[in-house]
User: Fold these one by one.
Assistant:
Number 1:
Amino acid sequence: MIVWNNAMKARTVRYAASCACCFILLAFVAAEYAVAVSDEKNAADGAPREIGSRAPKTGEAASPLRIAAIDFVVPGGGALYYKNYYYGALFGVLKIAGICAMYYSYNDWRYQRSLYFAAKRANAELDPDHKLRFKVPGGGYKTVEELHHDYDRSAQNITFAVLGTAAVYAASLIYTLYKIDESRERSLPTFEISYGRDILTGTREYAFSLGCTLRM
Amino acid sequence: MIMSGAIFCIRMMARTNDRLRMMIAGAVIALPMVFVSCIHDPVGGGYYLDVEKIKGGEKPTPPAIQTVETDVADPLVIIITFTSSGAIDPDTGNNSGLYYFIYYLDADPAFFEDEGEYYNSVYYVGYTSEAAFNGKDPKSVIVGKVNPAFHGALYFWMTSYDGGRESDHSNVVSIVIP
């Protein structure tokens, strides 16, 4: 008979979260691939290229820092700012899942640590010569070594949760910066490095200049 | 900053269609609830000092080895005779559910640096149970057959096991194989 203990629950949650993330990413890749194939097919069919308006965009120019801050504070905020609700929802759900995973992993680590140290103390005080098996809340028995293994694994889960969440935040930020650049491609660049040099033969002078421009 | 972010999020949600809005709201509400429902509070340092939380509860007492000798018919077969009347599981008050583990070593275990070495599976040779003897006491059990090439002393000791906890070791009895 299978005992549905806490370790199995935690493992199931992790697998379900991993599967959901993989599924979402695969769906995302498949959608992008379908769009690319469709564009290629249209080009091959000789379909007329869609011509859009080339009129300069009007309205208040978006500040990259402001949008990046919105993207950081509001899950999916950067994509939602550019009215891309699909990506906004995707990044929003992934970020909330990442934050929840970090919160859960941290609390699970504290719980596993408390179980390990309580078992270690009890084994040392009650019967140091034998490996006692301790009842784990939720079902089953584990030795101190097994509880230590769970404690290590919970610490490892924090690392995975932090790395996964950081990856989602980085992807969201890159997407937002890409959209910022896209929206400003017909206006002045948001970030520019200029370089110039000149040799003035009359005064035998060598001029060199390096400039950096950041539009906020 | 958080308030302005929340207002921005609500404004964006208001622009989306009903189905997407429901999906986002459902995910935002459900995800934290799923994770939070799996969280346990840490336990105190003395949580496991309660024997009720240890498999087997209280530790049983060990049996006593009476003799270790070779079989009359085959001098390489070793027979242990022990009594289990003193082996009691405190949780049941009797020894009806006990198992008896047998260990041996070809050196004196008195020189073990760690008492826990007495229960190392390296020295384990086999087991028998109280139920196998129908209350007969003392009990004799064949441990095994010695390799004809072996000559020297063998040291035997036993423990009792209640399915969760193992007792302290019994007295150590040796036999010399000529």
Number 2:
Amino acid sequence: MTARTLAWTGFLAVAAFVLLVAGRLAALDPVENLTLTLTSPVQRILHDATTPIANWVNDVTDASGLSAENKRLRADNERLMTELARAREDAVQLRKLQDATGIKQQFPNDTFVAASVVARDSSNARRMVAISRGRSDGVKDGMIVVTEGHSLVGTVTKTFDGYAWVTLITDPTSAVSAMVQSSRAEGVVAGNYGGSLNMEFVGQGAAVQDGDFVITSGIGGGYPPGIVIGRVSAVATAGQDLFQKVKVDHLASLDKLEQVLVLTSFLPKTFAQP
Amino acid sequence: MRYWVGGLIAFVLALVQASSVQQFHILGVIPNLLLVLLTAWLVVRGLDDVLPMIGVAGISLGLIGLQAPGLVLLALLPLAGLGVIRELRVVHSDFLLFLVLVAAATVLYESVMVLGVMLAGGGHDLVAAFTRDMVPATVVNVAIAPPVYLVMRLARPDPRGRRLSY
């Protein structure tokens, strides 16, 4: 190794640590904002140009997964159509009851800001996206992001003037207080490597079944209650374990997000020590 | 090679990685074309050529690809250490050496990224990190490596270097 090589290596190592510290101190925010502003149009062009090829490659390399998914979706479609009809009838009855008793809806004044996904985290370890709305649009750190169908996408974790970073629920650092809709069994839905979701801290006695819907519980104040996260896809119980192992499939197609909604009327609550 | 040319190439590679390559999910992971190309550059053209590119690529990918630039740079830095293995000439075949270096660079890169996640307070499931991240990422990167090596060999300015060695 020559002296020049050693000097370059040392310089890069020092630069890496300086950048890590600068990133922690948010000193790189203006540079990140400027980079996103300048490169997002080019990124969009490159992204759109390669999307057909990527879709084809992804389909070919996941042919067995597609077949299984298709079978499951057909079964889901039949069941959901039945549930939809039942839910419509329930909604009519509920509205009549609300009118009669004067009970207000849970979030009557929800406001959303629509945003496009302009960039995605390109690493395998993290799951983040950048959206086209930022501080100037009223987006703040901690705000909740949902799909157009109102299933949970993630949380705004960094805001710039015209952009914001959203940490997806599948990110390994994400944890959401959740409950199983049917049995009200509570737990925490945490992201894991590979983009999977696990519901943790679900007690052995709790009733959890494949296909159950998992929603936010609202405990902790980080998320409003009642937002759909996903559906239970596998439950494993072992006698010696304190908790069940619950796998959750997210409803939103998080790898192919294009449009999202930022819930601007809700900010996470911070609780003061008593 | 002039530094600015290498820097420009590294920036474009980072842009392509963040915009186009990130759409591909093979075995559940995104191929790291940038890392494979830098490793090919290292094997074909040497460590002195690739070091400035590592700097630009790491910072660019961090800024464009929604990652911490310092962490990406740190994850790419083991390439410098792997370059020393190349200089030692312990493996006669450049191609075989390249495949081994791609595998090693991927494991080291993903390890640093997983460490970054753990320091951020999440992802303590090391079995999942190994089985769903490191192993598939290594397999996918090694799988895309041969055509990248071929292109790098053919693009080498020295005509003698265009002979493929096995």
